Amino acid sequence: IRKNDYLENQKNEPHERMYFYGDICQMNYVEIFSDEELQLSEENEDPNMLKGTPCSPGQVEGVAKIVLAPEDAVLNGEILVTKRTDPGWVPLFPSISGLVIERGSVLSHSAVVAREMGIPTIVGLRKVTDKIKDGDKIKIDGTTGIVEKK
């Protein structure tokens, strides 16, 4: 049953935050909406300019590499673009020139390690893996949080 639940849960995008009370097995919890769901959508005049949370200063221009799981990564200086990271992604960092993550904050593990390694990093850029495609030429500015598609 747990293996089947695991496989089913692989198909779902995890919530950003949840508060739990009572019995989780009875689905007795309250969801907390993301900033994106609560804020009015701001349409950017330039669809090639995306804004996230700056985490590690520096600018880099290069090829975007979309990676959704660390075991699928083959990197050689590209700008890593992904949905989320955990400490298991850190061994990939020496092979990248920049980092863009859909989730996270300035205190997330990847952001802290990227700062220590001097890798320009932007986090919290919602749906970036839908807006940037593998192989796109992009420029990221880890000081301002701007990603520019070239």
Report on this structure.
The model is unreliable at 37-43 (pLDDT under 50). Helices cover 17% and strands 29% of the residues. The longest helix is centred in the C-terminal third of the chain and has 9 residues, at 109-117. Helix 3 links the parallel strand 7 and strand 8. The strands form two sheets. It has an eight-stranded mixed beta sheet with strand order 3-10-9-5-6-7-8-4, covered by helices on one side. It is α/β, with parallel strands linked by helices.
Break the fold down into its secondary structure elements and pairings.
Elements: H1 2-9, E1 17-20, E2 29-32, H2 35-38, E3 49-51, E4 53-56, E5 59-66, E6 79-82, E7 98-101, H3 109-117, E8 121-123, H4 128-131, E9 137-141, E10 146-149
Parallel strand pairs: 5-6, 6-7, 7-8
Antiparallel strand pairs: 1-2, 3-10, 4-8, 5-9, 9-10
Cα shape = globular
Number of strands: 10
Rg for CA atoms: 17 Å
Distance between the termini: 47 Å
Helix content: 10-25%
Question: Which features characterize this protein?
Answer:
150 residues, alpha/beta, two-stranded antiparallel sheet, 4 helices, 17% helix, globular
